[in-house]
Amino acid sequence: MADATGMPPPGNGGHTNGQGTDNPGTNGAGNAGRPAASPILTITGLRTQFGTSVIHDNLDFSVQPGEVMGVVGGSGTGKSVLIRTIIGLNKPAAGRIAVFGRDLASLSAAETTAMQSRWGVLFQDGALFSSLTVAQNIEVPMKEHSDLPPELRQELIDVKISMVGLPPDAAHKYPAELSGGMRKRAGLARALALDADILFLDEPTAGLDPIGAANFDILIGDLQRALGLTVVMVTHDLDSLYAICDRVSVLVNKRVKVGTIEELMHEPDPWIQEYFGGPRGRAAAGSAERSGTAPQSAG
Question: What's the chain's average pLDDT?
Answer without folding.
Answer: 86
